[in-house]
Amino acid sequence: MSLPGSAEPSALASRLGYAGLLPFVGGAALAWLLARPDYLAEHAFVMQGLSAYAATVIAFLGALHWGLVMRQPEPGALRWGVWPALLAWVGLLMPAYAGLVVHGVLLLACYAVDRRSYPRLGVGGWLTLRFRCTVLASLCCFLAAAAT
């Protein structure tokens, strides 16, 4: 049950959100499976790919704020919307094992900001999906980083 004016994700949006976790889960699993001396190149490729995917998702999470501000002006959302992409880019420039830790923390930070701002912007009903996706995506980033 949603609050008045609190949009919730459709079934399709929920399915797509959960499907977006597949690269996180697959990347973390492959990071561990390939964490052997005879698979160094493959391991590095998987780690870099997961880091790039995480950075893309983080940039998307920031950009959502710009979209929401188009419906309901809130200048702070514009400023916040830029930071996730910039910080994710820094994480992407780091070695993947370190960048994935940065990305895991950024995913959690994005959720913390969204927890405060989504209700004000009328989309508080999305927080359950955001929480579930954030926990799993962050965990996968941390687990993959630990596979190095």
Give a written overview of the molecule.
- The chain has 148 residues and is mostly helical.
- It has helices at residues 11-19, 22-33, 40-71, 75-93, 96-120, 127-146.
- Helix 3 packs antiparallel against helix 4 and helix 5 runs antiparallel to helix 6.
- The protein is elongated, with a radius of gyration of 16 Å.
- The model has no long low-confidence stretch (mean pLDDT 93).
What multimeric state do the chains show?
A: single chain
Specify the helix fraction band.
over 70%
- The best one-word shape is elongated
Low-pLDDT residue intervals, each spanning 5 or more residues: none
The profile of the biggest β sheet is: none
- Radius of gyration, rounded? 16 Å
Query: What is the helix tally?
Result: 6
Please report which band the strand proportion falls in: under 5%, 5-15%, 15-25%, 25-35%, 35-45% or over 45%: under 5%
Roughly what is the average pLDDT, rounded to an integer? 93
β-strand number: 0
Number of domains: 1
**H and E string:** HHHHHH
- Class derived from helix and strand content: mainly alpha
Distance between the termini: 43 Å
